[in-house]
TrEMBL record:
SMART domains xrefs: AAA (SM00382)
Region of interest: Disordered: 1-51
Family indicated by similarity: Belongs to the ABC transporter superfamily.
Domain named ABC transporter: residues: 429-651
Keywords: ATP-binding, Membrane, Nucleotide-binding, Transmembrane, Transmembrane helix, Transport
Localisation: Cell membrane
Gene3D superfamilies noted in UniProt: ABC transporter type 1, transmembrane domain, P-loop containing nucleotide triphosphate hydrolases
Topology class, membrane: Multi-pass membrane protein
Protein name: ABC transporter ATP-binding protein
PANTHER family cross-referenced by the UniProt entry: ATP-BINDING CASSETTE, SUB-FAMILY D MEMBER (PTHR11384), LYSOSOMAL COBALAMIN TRANSPORTER ABCD4 (PTHR11384:SF59)
Species assigned in the record: Phyllobacterium brassicacearum
GO MF term set: ABC-type transporter activity; ATP binding; ATP hydrolysis activity
Membrane-crossing residue ranges in chain numbering: 83-105, 125-148, 205-226, 232-255
Any Gene Ontology CC annotation: plasma membrane
Length: 667
């Protein structure tokens, strides 16, 4: 049964209320980015086994670029940005107009130098006055061009980032990526940094290519017209070279471009390795920050420093290799820029000296030659950026491929899918012939049959590795692979309490209210909830914005998670080792408080502590077996817990027991 058909609402952990809006937004964005005229992403076909490893890797890289464009071009599709085409056409018009102004300035150069050569003061003054409008017009066009170009980049990045994030967050895929294989490490770095470069560079590249093509086409005509033919006498023979300036410009550009292509042939590969090394370095630093308390308590600074130094050394090594590439390409680029203005002057000098060319024509030819070289040399100057874009686009495409795989797994019959539906009768939750497997089909839990009635408190037990947490993930909808069904009551809400509660950044009030908005409850109610879980000493810090994830201890975080329960008042609670950081006495008080405050709530607990049996009415045990864990017992704890609770009351309140003295109880 589809998620749309499942009416059971839930909060925190599995399917929070806000997740329905997120799911709708994800669906909308996926339609915008995928279900366009380009169709769905193609299946990745394994390379021909007869290919060499190098050829297979090249085939994979070509596919990755294709995969990136399948989603990225949706920005200009029917479901894309409505301003994409107007802005793109506007940018093209500005580029063409700017080339026209360049031509105007080129003609102005010829006229002003001819006037100077002829000592025509009136023309010089007139052309001086004309120059200001030309400069203002060119400047205005450049500013407008920058605005449109960067606006397209910003909006394209926003559109594609929203699409990728929506797909990443949908159906718990951000979590499932940690469980499956694939090239998708550090997805946050890929989305934040690689996607930025992947959307900025193509706009720069395409606008640059168009501008270079138009400039080259326009000023090659200028060179052909001005330069004409050159006649040379070699060994008594006369040789005429038509359009000698054009031929020289093309040859010059071919030499520099070929040199750049040969020298920079390893640029893309080195850029990919450098970006990957940078991502791994950021990930290492992030891990240290997130686990700072554990590292500090264990005194692991030296070991962490060793790991950081190792990853940073890899970054420096990649940078050193890339520096060598930049040095060689800079040599070609700098040499080209130095020779370009001189070559046309030297070529035109014989014609100027014999009087067949004016000074203005020489200067116009020099200006046109420089523009043509700039156009032809655009690739030379931007080859490093093109290589960087290749690397970033492939990293984004690798993440997209992993998301594609999860989406296909959700829709394919190749691997079993756990169905989600509604319970029959009053049962709040039922697991019907539920089997949980890995994404490769390996069974973890097999053929589980459980029906849980309203108000039941069920303890799921079993040795470590028996599949208890995996079963909880399947119930929460985070683990999609398997068989059978998980069914909820249509009107019940689910709340998950994991072993390590998530503490968002911001105020303590936001942390207590999560995943709902911080202002959904009054300060009085939040303070009351903190009082009941033993965190009353934090009431004065409710509005304080601090790094609470680092400040609070493990036990305090678990208490705070129980405070969330009191605010959200769900119908079903799943506790996954949710009291593991508390001592036995604090654990008992927390469970007693929970049962007292929410007497009708249905509780499903996953835990190892035998003491928790006292707070549950039923115990089911999983046993790890070859081929997947199985449910081996389902025991009613009601009568056993009644006797234990009486003993607990006797030990805690001996004076209230008639006919007994405190000393006799102690004995």
């Amino acid at each position: 049964m589809s998620g749309a058909k499942l009416k059971a609402k839930s909060i925190a952990g599995a399917k929070p209320r806000g997740a329905e809006k997120l799911r709708q937004r994800a669906s909308t964005v996926e339609v915008a980015s995928e279900v366009e005229d380009q169709g769905a992403p193609p299946d990745f076909i394994d390379p021909d086994p007869e290919l060499t490893p190098e050829e297979a890797e090249q085939a994979r890289k070509r596919y990755l670029l294709r995969r990136f464009w399948i989603s990225a071009r949706g920005y200009w599709g029917r479901g894309g940005d409505r301003l994409a085409w107007p802005f793109s056409i506007g940018l093209l018009i500005l580029i063409c107009t700017n080339v026209g102004f360049q031509y105007g300035i080129n003609v102005w150069n010829r006229a002003i130098f001819d006037a100077i050569e002829q000592r025509n003061a009136r023309t010089v003054y007139f052309l001086s006055a004309v120059f200001l409008p030309l400069v203002l017009g060119t400047g205005s066009l450049v500013v407008a061009q920058v605005f449109l170009r960067m606006t397209i980049q910003r909006r394209w990045r926003s559109w594609l980032t929203t699409a990728v994030i929506a797909r990443w967050l949908a159906n718990g895929r951000y979590y499932q990526l940690n469980l499956v294989g694939g090239d998708h490490k550090n997805p946050e770095a890929r989305i934040a940094e690689d996607l930025r470069i992947a959307t900025e560079s193509p706009v720069d590249f395409i606008s640059g290519v168009i501008s270079a093509f138009l400039s080259a086409s326009t000023f090659i005509l200028v060179l052909w017209t001005i330069g004409g033919a050159m006649t040379l006498t070699i060994a008594g023979s006369t040789v005429t070279i038509p359009g000698f300036l054009v031929i020289t410009a093309v040859l010059y550009a071919a030499i520099t471009s070929t040199s750049m292509a040969v020298i920079g042939r390893h640029f893309i590969h080195l850029s990919e390795e450098k970006n990957q090394a940078e991502a791994e370095f950021r990930y290492t630093l992030t891990r240290v920050r997130e686990n700072g308390e554990s590292i500090a308590l264990l005194g692991g600074e030296e070991e962490e420093r060793s790991g950081i130094d190792k990853t940073f050394a890899n970054v420096l090594k990649r940078w050193a290799l890339l520096t060598g590439q930049h040095m060689r390409t800079a040599l070609v680029s700098q040499g080209s820029s130095l020779f370009a203005p001189v070559v046309p002057v030297l070529l035109c000098a014989p014609k100027f000296l014999e009087g067949s060319m004016t000074l203005g024509q020489v200067m116009q030819a020099a200006s046109a030659f420089a523009i043509v070289q700039g156009a032809f040399g655009w690739l030379v100057d931007n080859y490093p950026r093109l290589a960087d874009w290749n690397a970033c686009a492939r990293r984004i495409a690798s993440l997209m491929m992993s998301l594609d795989g999860l989406e296909r797994a959700e829709q394919s019959d190749a691997f079993g899918r756990i169905r989600r539906g509604e319970t029959e009768g009053d049962a709040v939750l039922s697991l019907n012939n539920l089997s949980v497997s890995l994404d490769d089909g390996t069974a973890v839990v097999k053929e589980t049959e459980v029906v849980i009635e309203p108000g039941e408190r069920v303890l799921v037990a079993g040795e470590s590795g028996s599949g208890k947490s995996t079963l909880v993930r399947a119930v929460a909808g985070l683990w999609p692979w398997g068989d059978g069904s998980v069914n909820f009551h249509a009107d019940k809400r689910l709340f998950m309490l994991p072993q390590r509660p998530y503490i968002p950044s911001g105020t303590l009030r936001r942390a207590v209210a999560y995943p709902a908005a911080a202002d959904n409850w009054s300060l009085k109610k939040i303070n009351a909830a903190l009082d009941k879980v033993g965190l009353d000493y934090l009431n004065g810090k409710i509005e304080e914005d601090s790094p609470w994830d680092q400040t609070l201890s493990g036990g305090e975080k678990q208490r705070l998670a129980f405070a969330r329960l009191l605010l959200h008042t769900p119908d079903i609670i799943v506790l996954d080792e949710a009291t593991s950081a508390l001592d036995e006495n604090s654990q008992d008080k927390m469970m007693e408080m929970l049962i007292h405050e929410l007497p009708k709530v249905t509780i499903i607990s996953v835990a190892h502590r035998a003491e928790l049996e006292a707070f549950h009415s039923r115990k089911i045990t999983l046993e790890r077996r070859e081929g997947g864990a199985k449910l081996v017992s389902d025991v009613d704890l009601g009568q056993r817990n009644s006797r234990r609770n009486l003993l607990v009351r006797l030990l805690r309140h001996p004076r209230k027991v008639p006919g007994r003295h405190r000393s006799s109880i102690r004995s």
